[in-house]
Amino acid sequence: MRKVFVLGRAIFGGYFVYSGLHHFREQQQMSGYAASKGVPAAELAVPASGALILAGGLSVLTGVKPREGLAAIVAFLIPVTLQMHRFWEVDDPGQRMNEMINFSKNMALVGASLTMMQIREPWPVSLESARPARRTRNRQLSLKFHQRDDQLHKKHGAGGCLANDDANQRALAGEPGECAARSPHQESSAVPEVPSTRCSYAAGVSSRPVSRTKVLRYPYPAR
Length: 223
Description:
The protein is an all-alpha fold. Helices cover 62% and strands 0% of the residues. It is built from nine helices and no strands. The chain has helices at 2-25, 27-36, 42-62, 66-84, 93-116, 127-130, 132-156, 165-172, 184-187.
């Protein structure tokens, strides 16, 4: 499926790269056509729209900021389709059919773009997923958080602490202060300690349990 996904990306992104370059190669001709459709400042609108879909196509091809690239493609398709392909206003049956085909095609591309925006980043076989800096940063953050979590575990004992983001973040930063809240099982000897008590430091991705009462969480959100 990965190969199929890459092939689909190449076709989809390549189409917009080609269309964007075509806006520059045939700028004069396309400006005249856009002006005949009532587009204001067509001489500026054609190269600007070409740059927009060229950037969007390259984003999809390379996998760099693909959601932003897809948003640029949608921002181009919707106004252009509604302005340039108003088939309901055409009287000639043949021309109306052509405009309807172009209208339907662009709406299908909008739907595909919106669907692809839901794919989690980084995309497979993309420049963003292959960047060494990203992998190095993730490893460094993971190692730092593991070390800080071990320090907190030694400081507060096996009972851990209850969730309080402000106090826990201060503890993670190395600032002095007690844990935000202690487990009620630690304050009352009549109630046995429940092993499922957990300490939540920040919103993030759950990782390995450090002890039976604490769960490690990465300091950066899942994407």
